[in-house]
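Q: What does the predicted 3D structure of 6033_t:CDS:1 look like?
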Amino acid sequence: MSVPPEHIISLMKIVYCMAKEDLPLNKFKQLTHLGRAIEAPHLISENHPITYKNNICGRELLYSISSSIEDNIWKELSLASAIGIIVDESTDIDMESHLIIYVRYFINGVIKIRFLSLLEIENKDAKSIYSVITKPFIANKVDHKIFSFTSDGASVMQGKISGVEFCIYAKSVLKKIYAFFSNSSKRIQTLSTYQETLNNPQLKILKIFDVRWLSLYEAVNNICFSIEPLLDTFLHTI
């Protein structure tokens, strides 16, 4: 037996209100009863065989709402010209560590700040946290738009040598260097000339592939062995 869509919409409104007010889902059934008591127009009768009023259905409705909101945020991020990440670490009642992720982005002349997700972290080292934070941005192909990172100031987040902030910045620099050379045969030739003049190995500036760690090593290695030729090339072309 089908359920009128208006009934589902009314239930989703109740769940959404509960989430906004931080109410537990085990109160979902009681609030549905309240809706009927005040004669909410679209809630079907208690005698209907399917009512979706238990807390399990409430959790599924909440997941559907949150997924829809998150999808809309990712759509906006794909259109945004720049993205900033704001991170805060939190611990739940079971002492499990999580990262609260907010995004700040510029779209249609407006700066927006939105809650994006709550991510569970198993390891608290910079490499693991960096991977957890950047994974969804890479999956949605917007990681190249990241321009800022804000955190609570802990050393694992903002360490100058191996902190999460440094990891994001370093990878961004590698991608920008590749982009600088990728569409210009003249710049590539200039780099090659300086490499030869300075007796440096003839190494190419390589693209980073997020699914291949070896590509990251090779890209960093080639840049490290080409620092002087790169600096001369930048001075010559910029």
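A (community wiki): The structure tokens above were generated from the sequence. Residues 55-79 form the longest helix (25 residues). Residues 16 and 65 are 7 Å apart (CA to CA).
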